[in-house]
Amino acid sequence: MKIILILSFLMGVSAFGYEIGPVGVISSYAQTSYTQTTSTTNFSVTPSSAIGYGGGIASSFPLNANFDLEIRAFYINQSIKNTFTGTASGFPVSGSMTSNAPFVMVPLLINLRVGQMLGLHAGGYYGIATGTSSSTTTSTVLGVTTSTNSSSSNTINDYGAVGGIQFKPGLSANVNLLISADYYYGFANLNSGTTGAGTSTGQSIQGTVGFLFKM
């Protein structure tokens, strides 16, 4: 029933003409700092930003003379970089970890048109965890450095708020170029299920470039 209502709504607004097309995405992503404590370890983890890439589709449905409903859906392989310091079995430990987290992101946005080509948009997003997350951890204990590789299923979905600005110049009568800069603020605890780890959420600055074809 919900799907029928959504389709009916989109068919209604499409009477005004809608746009759809492919997009590419680049993301600068980082999680918030946290601590991880178990019976034998105590670490302080400091993430830093890392670059990820992806692509998908974007669509825009005019609601009235000033507002559009925008729906995007894209796959992105988020890169993650962390450094950590602490103790393991009483010995001082320091090191770093690099990993990836693949997601299918679905932002739902309301765009306010500012002039013919500019727009301001805000809304929410849902990130569906998918695929396998691989990581490389390098640690140093008493002057000895070791490196280990591991992989696991990516299972923690993300959700949050998103806002940004877009530039949409016309390339022809039926094609617009879409350039968008967005800030994503996650609400989900991405350490859920990790033993001893404190809460950590994700934030990213994303750039989107693509083509929208008028239908």
In short:
With 215 residues, the protein is mostly beta strands.
Give a verbal description of the structure:
- With 215 residues, the chain is mainly β.
- Helices cover 6% and strands 70% of the residues.
- It is built from one helix and twelve strands, in the order αββββββββββββ.
- An eight-stranded antiparallel beta barrel has the order 1-4-5-6-7-10-11-12.
- A hairpin with a 2-residue loop joins β8 and β9.
- The longest helix is centred in the N-terminal third of the chain and has 12 residues, at 2-13.
What key attributes describe this structure?
single chain, 215 residues, mainly beta, eight-stranded antiparallel beta barrel, 70% strand, disordered N terminus
Structural class: mainly beta
Number of contiguous helices: 1
Shape type: elongated
Portion in strands: over 45%
Order the strands across the largest sheet as they lie in space.
Answer: 1-4-5-6-7-10-11-12
- Which whole number gives the mean pLDDT? 90
Q: Quick one: biggest sheet?
A: 8 strands, antiparallel, barrel
Low confidence ranges: 2-7
Which value, in Å, is the CA radius of gyration? 21 Å
What is the first-to-last residue Cα distance?
26 Å
Q: Order of helices and strands, N to C?
A: HEEEEEEEEEEEE
Topology summary:
Elements: H1 2-13, E1 19-31, E2 34-37, E3 41-48, E4 50-62, E5 67-88, E6 91-114, E7 118-129, E8 132-141, E9 144-153, E10 158-167, E11 175-186, E12 202-214
